[in-house]
Structure formats: C-alpha cells, structure tokens
Design brief:
Layout (H helix, E strand, L loop, with lengths): L2 H5 L4 H12 L5 H8 L3 H11 L9 H17 L4 H18 L5 H13 L5 H23 L6 E6 L2 E7 L2 H4 L6 H13 L8 E6 L3 H9 L4 E6 L25 E4 L3 H15 L1
Parallel strand pairs: 3-4, 4-5
Antiparallel strand pairs: 1-2, 1-3
This protein binds zinc ion (ZN).
The site of zinc ion has 6 residues, from helix 11.
Amino acid sequence: MSNQKKQNHYTSEFKESAVKLAIESDGQVSKVAEELGVNKNTLHTWIGRYHRPQKQKVDRVEEEHVYDELKRLRKDNKRLKEERDILKKAAAYFAKESSRSTPLSTVTKRAIHMLNKKAESPDQKAHDLRFMQHAFELANRAAAQGEVPVGALVVWNDEIIGEGWNAPISRHDPTAHAEIQALRSAGQRVGNYRLPGSTLYVTLEPCVMCAGAIIHARIKRLVFAAHDPKGGAAGSVFDLLPSDGRFNHRVVCEGGLLEEHCAAQLRAFFKARR
Ligand SMILES: [Zn+2]
C-alpha cells in the first residue's frame, strides 16, 4: 500500500490527535511518528495542516514519562496490529484530554489503563469485580487487626486457591504483605511454588518485594485496585511489572479496578487511627 493510500485510512480525529502529540513532544516528531506507526513526513504534513498553536499546561517531566510508557508498551506489545490500534486510541484520548488541561499524570494513567484493558471480555470483567470485592473483604480483616487494610487472593480456573491479608505487625514479619500471604497459601494448597495460569487480585498496587514474589510464582495476570504513589512497583514508582524486560517472565497487569473503593477503605482506616 502506498503512503498516500495509507494516509487516507486515518480519521481526521486521529490526525489531529497525532498532531497534538507531535506538538507536545518538544521537537521529537520522528519519535511520535514511530510510536504511532505513521510515516514521519506524513505527520509533518498533518502538522502543517492541523496545527493551531495554543497554550497548554504541560509538565515536561510528565510528558517524557508518557513517551517512555508508550514506547515501553509498544516494545512489549511486539508491534501487533491490534495493540497498535489501542495505542492510537490511547494517544488520541491523551491528546484530547490534555487540551482540557487535565494533568498529564492523570491522562497517562488513564491511557495506560486503556492499553491494559485490551482483551477484557464482559465475562472477565464480572469475574474481576467479584474477586476484587472478595479481596476488599480480606482487607477488612487486616483493618480489624489494626493492620493497613490490603487484601489479596489467587485465582486459578475461576477458583480461589489462596487468600491473604496484610499482617506484618501482628506476625512480626516484614514480608507478611497480603500478596505474599496469598501466594504462600496458594502454594501450600496446590503443592507447588509456581502458580502458572493464576491471577492475583490485590486491593493495592504491589510493592517491590511483592512484585518480585509475583514474578517468582509465575503469576499470569495481576489485577489491582488502587495505585500506590508511595511505593507501587507496577508503574507508580518502580517499573517491575508488567515486566522490566530483564525478567524472563511477563505478567499481564491491570490496575485501577474499583480504585476509589480501595482509596476510601484506606482513608477510613487512617482517619480512624488518628
Ligand atoms: Zn508488598
């Protein structure tokens, strides 16, 4: 297919979004073109046609973060066409949002979330909600023991094979995070230290230690509720999950499910403690 022909396949909405992305890239137009899978010259043509200079609140650091994230995802996604389409949608969404002056950090989070949501069937979604509700119940057990409320469970073939809640204080054990507890209980249950094909649900983004344990356990998929800006290892602070590329195991990673519920649970806990 010639470039001219290809160019006509893009909607004007996509073109405008791509232009916004390019304008905000601080001169890194080739990089943006590469990310979106469009010809560099084509993108320049679009810029000439669609660019309307306007003031935007863009934090350079956050902007770079967006590109790093998109690039990483693109690399991880091995250039599958389906994923590229999602990436385009995320980019378009991001450009649309940033013109409304939404902080880019928020937009990035949403874009990444969109990318992660790709293969989610309605059925899967219902299961995820049900299991996450259960994780919240486990988190309440932690709260009842005066521990920071975090709950986790391991699911294999739609069956819960392990449960855990945060208990480092009561157990005098710095490793007794909800995820570790759930992985231990699942390991005992199935008689294996590897849990391939399993999904781990947890109410808070895993820390570095738990991310390591999740990789060691060969968990297939991770679903977490709230992002943890203080120590999350799935992108909020550290980038160990879904994979940092040096591990030989990659975890499908979805964050933000019932996020507000988890945030409220944590707020209530810390408020009661004060
Ligand atoms: Zn942890």
